[in-house]
Amino acid sequence: MKFLGNVISNENGPNTMEFDFAIQHPSVRKGQFVQINADEGVIIARVEEIYKTNRYFSRVESVVEYERGNNPIEKAFPVDRWEYLVANCSILGFFNNGKVERLTFPPSPGSKVTEIDETILESFLGFDKRGLWLGKIFHHNLEVRLNLTRLLQKHVAILAMSGAGKSHLVGVIIEELLDRESSLGKPAIIVLDPHGEYKRFLEDSFYRRNTKVFENENIKIGMSDLKLSNFCDFLELSNAQKREFGKILQNMKGEAYEIDDLIKTIDESDIKSPIKENLSGALSGLKSFEIFGKYTRPSIDFLARAGQLSILDLSNFVELKEKQIIASFFAKKLFYERRKGTIPPFLLVIEEAHQFCPEAKKEEALSRGIIETIAREGRKFYASLMLVSQRPIRLSATALSQCNTHIILRVTNPYDIDHIGKSSEGISGELIKALPSLRTGEAVIVGEAVNFPIMIKVRDKKSKKSEIEKTYEEVLVEFNLRNKKEFLDSF
Ligand SMILES: Nc1ncnc2c1ncn2[C@@H]1O[C@H](COP(=O)(O)OP(=O)(O)OP(=O)(O)O)[C@@H](O)[C@H]1O
Ligand SMILES: [Mg+2]
């Protein structure tokens, strides 16, 4: 292993939490993992900061007085030769026979610090050779492979500002799930896609086979599949209205009907005024959303299939309420069927999660209830969530706190950074400070999926790359040409 330097003795230590070492190899970088071989095992540490020392400049009076005396210090002494680089390291643990223990004794001054053995680092961080390959860890030639159970069983939040690489990372995770060896089993993947950007999986000849896209007319909520509890998500109903409506739904059970049939049944019923008119009025209000039909499309067993990526493309639904109603209905149905065991374990990816699960008034957050329920209880039923958001501050605190792994890419908004600092357990001040300067595709992972917070560079996608986004100029030229053609065609 490459020798990096010796532990030095100074006012900070070494102690059981940290040590400094004199850097003797130019490859040392802030954030790098290092090791010290001790008699009982291996001490693992991370370089937190690198600083320079020079004893000629450590006393204020000598620096100033030499300068005043017209005999600059650097002319009087060989100061260059006395400049040293020192790395401050935090001790992460003691690695002994594959187990990580807390350090109870500090390393000795003079101990040799070396590059870390990558097999030790892999096991120390809790990577899994058969896990999901997301990219490379910073400063090391080590692939990040996260254990599936640790990542998905307790939900994931992917947070970052726009353009930082969230959807790309989700794409990478989806590829990993679809690429799993069949004998190991594969979950069903369902993506709520408000911008229709995941359709690109269809452009790839390999992934196309396992991808289904549902959009426009192919997304419908069958009226007869709605339970009273669903209606309570969309409509403000009084207790009396709920009671009467419950009876009507009970009577119509087993039939397939449209929204108009339901309204007609209510109108012709013997429900008292004004309950009847109010109920009928509330349901008529739902008619403006053109998402209700006689039958549910897609059916749940078509939507949730092991090893299949199902994309609910909501880009053509204009109103947020429509999108929330669709999200709430399908999430409820998925969770219900999963609890019964009729569909496979699934991963529900919610893009723009702050739209579907906001910290807002109930009437502006129709799908929040069920998302929070899955966040709280999904783990027991292998129903996993991946919440993706560029506005973590607007996301439900309950849902976010149940995501035990947070993957955070670039964030520059100070309010969001502050919020992430409070809601991401285990994120250190150093990592928080690093968030604004991350480049596209660079991420911090904290929580359940890793033993220690790590910084990674997310890998390229295996599937066909999305077309490079057009520049503003290109769109202007294209528009111009089209206009010209239309003008000429009109003659
Ligand atoms: N790890 C990566 N390697 C290479 N390119 C990447 C990587 N991550 C992201 N990109 C590219 O950066 C651009 C923005 O990424 P992406 O669409 O994933 O951002 P986003 O965080 O989802 O943004 P938004 O919030 O606007 O949806 C895309 O063109 C994508 O291909
Ligand atoms: Mg995105």
Describe the structure.
The protein has 491 residues and is of the alpha/beta class. Helices cover 33% and strands 23% of the residues. The strands form 3 sheets. The protein has an 11-stranded mixed β-sheet with strand order 9-8-20-19-18-10-17-16-11-15-12. Strands 1-2-5-4-3-7 form a 6-stranded antiparallel beta barrel. Helix 8 (259-267) runs antiparallel to helix 9 (275-286) and helix 11 runs parallel beside helix 13. The chain is elongated and about 105 Å long. The N and C termini lie far apart (77 Å). Adenosine-5'-triphosphate (ATP) is lined by residues 160, 162-168, 390, 440-441, 458, 460, 466.
CATH homology-level superfamily of the largest domain? P-loop containing nucleotide triphosphate hydrolases
Strand order of the largest sheet: 9-8-20-19-18-10-17-16-11-15-12
Per DSSP E runs of 2 or more residues, the count of β-strands stands at 20
Q: Nearest-angstrom radius of gyration? A: 29 Å
Which overall shape is indicated by the principal axes computed on the Cα atoms?
elongated
- Detail the poorly predicted runs: none
**Number of domain units:** 3
Give the assembly state of these chains.
single chain
CATH top level of the largest domain is: Alpha Beta
Strand content: 15-25%
Which cofactors or ions or other ligands sit in this model? adenosine-5'-triphosphate, magnesium ion
Which topology of the largest domain does CATH recognise? Rossmann fold
The description of the largest β-sheet is: 11 strands, mixed
Mean pLDDT comes to 92
Helix content: 25-40%
Structural class: alpha/beta
CATH architecture identity of the largest domain = 3-Layer(aba) Sandwich
N- to C-terminal distance: 77 Å
Number of helices: 17
